[in-house]
Amino acid sequence: MTDHQDMALDWMSDGADAPPPPVDLRPEIPHPARMYDYYLGGKDNFPADREAAEKVLGLSPLVRISALANRAFLQRAVRHLAEQGVRQFLDIGTGIPTAGNTHEVAQRVHPDARVAYLDNDPIVLVHSRALLAGTGHGGVTVLQADLRDPKAILSDPQVRSVLDLDRPVALLLFAILHFIDDADDPYGIVRTLVDALPSGSYLAMSHGTADFSTPDQAAKGPAVYRNATAQLTMRSREQVLRFFDGLELQEPGLVTAPLWRPDQPAQPTDGEVAIWAGVGRKP
Ligand SMILES: C[S@@+](CC[C@H](N)C(=O)[O-])C[C@H]1O[C@@H](n2cnc3c(N)ncnc32)[C@H](O)[C@@H]1O
Question: How many angstroms separate the CA atoms of 127 and 139, rounded?
Answer without folding.
Answer: 18
